[in-house]
Design a protein that fits this description.
- It is a single chain.
- This protein is α/β, with parallel strands linked by helices and about 180 residues long.
- The chain has one domain (about 25-170): Nucleotidyltransferase, domain 5, CATH 3.30.420.
- About 35% of the residues lie in helices and about 20% in strands.
- Helix 5 (about 135-145) packs across helix 6.
- The longest helix has 15 residues, at about 75-90.
- The protein starts with 5 loop residues before the first helix and ends in a 10-residue tail after the last helix.
- Mean pLDDT is about 75; it is low at about 1-10, about 15-20 and about 170-180.
């Protein structure tokens, strides 16, 4: 088969994905200071009655702090914007936000809103969760150390005031860095 044929091109694309050649991936575009890159994603769980819990997680990739851990039944792009406003008012505006391509995270409303304060967006390639590695590592620990270990009776019991402090002790799998 010719090297430039359709299957050759597909193999090259798979190899590129495996090697993490995306400019937005966390192994290529690394955090250099506090608020340089925030990473966000969603993780799903259930309460004791089987109701869905959709958790928005936001971490600072440099300090590895959990900035947001918001459980809700449903979250849409406007809910995410509301939380970002609160975060940015309290912590400052990040230079970039890295995420996968989930509909709530790439929605036009979010992209337009992030452009106003000049926040860059770093989207991981579809099918390449390792490109959002800080968020994925944090969520794996969140699942192992909190969601699989705790049982929430309802949404109110899962509120961040009860669990965010504990999540910050998990970080994203490495020792936290100073924010200065």
């Amino acid at each position: 088969m010719e090297e430039g044929g359709p299957q050759g091109a597909s193999g090259a694309a798979q190899e590129a994905r495996r090697l993490d050649v995306s400019e937005n991936g966390c192994s290529r575009f690394r955090p250099a200071y506090r608020n340089h890159i925030w990473a966000w994603d969603f993780i799903f769980d259930r309460d004791e009655r089987g109701g869905s819990l959709k958790w928005l997680t936001v971490i600072d990739e440099f300090t590895r702090e959990c900035l947001e851990l918001l459980p809700a039944r449903h979250l849409i792009s406007l809910d995410v914007i509301d939380r970002l406003i609160v975060l940015m008012n309290g912590r400052g505006v990040p230079a970039n936000i890295r995420s996968d391509n989930g509909p709530e995270l790439i929605a036009k409303a979010i992209r337009n809103w992030l452009a106003r304060p000049g926040v860059g967006t770093l989207y991981a390639e579809p099918g390449a969760p390792w490109e959002n590695g800080y968020a994925e590592a944090f969520q794996a620990r969140l699942r192992d150390e909190l969601l699989n270990a705790e049982s929430f009776a309802n949404l109110a019991e899962a509120r961040p005031s009860l669990v965010c402090g504990r999540a910050n002790t998990m970080r994203s799998g490495r020792t936290a860095r100073s924010g200065t």
